[in-house]
């Protein structure tokens, strides 16, 4: 019996049924081709408008090919944590270092980071196997104070063997009491933090280190000085990777933004099923979860809740696995860190007594000069050079032949905060479009990775679909400009009503919109939400993505650098 359970797979990959959708994908593709043939046929009859329409429609058709390829073979993952726990004794489960980044106490109120940290510590996973590291690029005493308070208060709830922490369905009075006590304690904690924010000058803990601190130039509490080029979140993640390498040195890392609290307590177990359950070592090395949001506005007026097109985002990454002996020499001058890396390569973690001994070395490896002359950000850790550093690092791993998984757990793995107002939505979209185009134009371009490395061509098409966001603004803008231009010049760019091609255009229009509408309805969204998303998609493409495109042009011309503008969370 025991043998039967240990031989069962830890996860299963299940192809999603999408025959009807594939049918519509192909119909739309052929209609688009038909329209292009018609354009070519009459290219000599009409002038500028015709050529422009032909170029735009060629781009839309190319984009549609990328869409078809991306959606053609979708898979779901079923994971079985119970089998994992039967197969691996609790003491042998791998440890996980969890990283949270924050940077601005005004745009990212400390209580948000606190909630995220608390949710990570409450994972349904042996508590001594979890370690949480927080980086604050803003050097905020309030964030520091809030986290000190967290470390004091509710830790006893996360002892792991306390049944009250995991039995969500237990309605016994004991559980109810514990639950209420925990809730009260959380209330007290948040009131304390709220008070500290309101009376900024009397933060009740030892903050001498923060006095007269400049958030852009400070000693190593963290890593940020104006004379070193700043790589935003990527550099913060690399600092945390090194520091954790010295302290706990877990073989797995989990990264979330400060506003992404864990919504599914078993998510580490689910991820372990994928990471440990694959047959060959090259199978799955990181797991990503889509970005989902809490308290989104009704009907998604800004079209940014990404319910239909899920963004690829948070990832648990077994980065250590890809470190080889050659790279060992390039982790920097710290002997202790080299030892830790070698240790990790053998699959070992650091013992808890290592923690206090490693503080001094941790300061050294967190210093902003430490990375000078090393491979950090180029071959090691989170890569530098894009304002979407996560989407730069992912393809690099894929191009080495490693695989990843993108499961859709229920309940959702993590919930974040979608910007709730116009300008913030646009700023975020502009940063993404900028970052994606930076990757497309870098040496990590998916086309090069397919030709010269091990990126699969279907992966390449999907990356191209996403990385060309910024470029898409140009044909969309031109196409939107055509009707106005034609009215002014008394010309036309669409087929006339008596022509057969007229019906092709109409049918494309109708089928495409019914197709997107059905996607929204199947995802349980309203017609209104669909309409809002269509509208915002046009606005975003022609404004935010255009500015993203322009900022990359300015970077190429060496006129200005691209910047990471942080999204406001509330
Ligand atoms: O100098 C910086 C700037 C940002 N951050 C952190 O980076 C994270 C993401 O920033 P946010 O403003 O929330 O951007 P989003 O657009 O919501 O983030 C998405 O897009 C980013 C890339 O543009 C990725 O880094 C994120 O993981 C992804 O969730 C937050 O935790 C920030 O605190 C830093 O640590 N240092
Ligand atoms: Mn965010």
From TrEMBL:
Subcellular localization, as worded in the UniProt entry: Endomembrane system
Main localization, broad class: membrane
Keyword Cell inner membrane listed: no
InterPro entries, alphabetized: Cellulose_synth, Nucleotide-diphossugar_trans
Any Gene Ontology CC annotation: endomembrane system
Active-site residues, as the UniProt record annotates them: 137, 390
Transmembrane segment boundaries: 23-42, 48-68, 502-521, 542-560
Alphabetical UniProt keywords: Cell wall biogenesis/degradation, Glycosyltransferase, Membrane, Transferase, Transmembrane, Transmembrane helix
GO biological process: cell wall organization; cellulose biosynthetic process
Topological relation to the membrane, as annotated: Multi-pass membrane protein
Binding-site residues for UDP-alpha-D-glucose, renumbered to this chain: 108, 137
Pfam families assigned: Cellulose_synt
UniProt entry tagged with the keyword Chloroplast: no
Gene Ontology molecular function, alphabetical: cellulose synthase (UDP-forming) activity
Residues bound to Mn(2+): 233, 257
Protein name: Cellulose synthase-like protein H1
């Amino acid at each position: 019996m025991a043998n039967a359970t240990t031989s069962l797979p830890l996860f299963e990959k299940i192809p999603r049924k999408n025959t009807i959708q594939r049918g519509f994908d192909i119909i739309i593709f052929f209609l688009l081709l038909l329209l292009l043939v018609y354009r070519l046929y009459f290219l000599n009859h009409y002038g500028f408008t015709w050529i422009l329409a032909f170029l735009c429609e060629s781009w839309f058709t190319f984009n549609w090919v990328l869409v078809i390829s991306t959606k053609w073979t979708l898979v779901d993952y079923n994971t079985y944590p119970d089998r994992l726990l039967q197969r691996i004794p609790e003491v042998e489960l791998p440890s996980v270092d969890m990283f949270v980044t924050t940077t601005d106490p005004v745009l990212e109120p400390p209580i948000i980071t606190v909630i995220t940290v608390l949710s990570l510590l409450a994972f349904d996973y042996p508590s001594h196997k979890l370690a949480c590291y927080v980086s604050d690029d803003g050097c905020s005493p309030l964030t520091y104070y809030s986290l000190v308070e967290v470390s004091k208060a509710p830790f006893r709830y996360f002892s792991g063997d306390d049944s009250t922490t995991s039995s969500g369905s237990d309605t016994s009075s004991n559980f109810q009491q514990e639950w209420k006590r925990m809730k009260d304690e959380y209330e007290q904690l948040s009131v304390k933090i709220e008070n500290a924010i309101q009376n900024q000058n009397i933060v009740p803990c030892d903050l001498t280190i923060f006095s007269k601190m400049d958030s852009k130039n400070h000693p190593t509490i963290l890593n940020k000085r104006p004379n070193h080029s700043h790589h935003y979140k990527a550099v913060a993640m690399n600092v945390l990777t090194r520091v954790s390498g010295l302290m706990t040195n877990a073989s797995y890392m989990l990264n979330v933004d400060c506003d992404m609290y864990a919504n599914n307590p078993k998510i580490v177990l689910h991820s372990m099923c994928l990471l440990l359950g694959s047959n060959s070592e090259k199978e799955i090395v990181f797991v990503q979860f889509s970005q989902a949001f809490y308290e989104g506005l009704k009907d998604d007026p800004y079209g940014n809740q990404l319910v239909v097109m899920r963004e690829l985002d948070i990832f648990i990454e077994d980065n250590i696995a890809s470190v080889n002996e050659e790279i060992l020499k390039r982790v920097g001058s710290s002997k202790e860190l080299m030892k830790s890396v070698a240790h990790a390569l053998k699959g070992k973690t650091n013992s808890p007594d290592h923690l206090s001994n490693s503080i001094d070395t941790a300061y050294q490896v967190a210093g902003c000069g430490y990375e000078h002359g090393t491979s950090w950000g180029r071959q090691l850790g989170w890569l530098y050079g894009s304002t979407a550093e996560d989407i730069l690092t992912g393809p690099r791993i894929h191009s080495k032949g490693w695989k990843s998984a993108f499961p859709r757990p229920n309940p959702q793995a993590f919930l974040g905060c979608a910007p709730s107002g116009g300008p913030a939505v646009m700023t975020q979209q502009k940063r993404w479009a900028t970052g994606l185009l930076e990757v497309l134009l870098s040496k990590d371009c998916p086309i090069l990775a397919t030709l010269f490395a091990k990126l699969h061509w279907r992966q390449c098409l999907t990356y191209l679909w996403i990385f060309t966001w910024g470029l898409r603004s140009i044909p969309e803008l031109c196409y939107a400009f055509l009707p106005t231009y034609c009215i002014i010049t008394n010309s036309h760019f669409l087929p006339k009503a008596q022509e057969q091609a007229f019906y092709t255009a109409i049918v494309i229009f109708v089928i495409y919109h019914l197709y997107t509408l059905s996607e929204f309805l199947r995802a349980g969204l309203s017609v209104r939400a669909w309409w809002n998303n269509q509208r915002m998609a046009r606005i975003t493409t022609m404004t935010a993505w255009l500015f993203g495109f322009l900022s990359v042009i300015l970077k190429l011309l060496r006129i200005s650098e691209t910047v990471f503008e942080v999204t406001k969370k509330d």
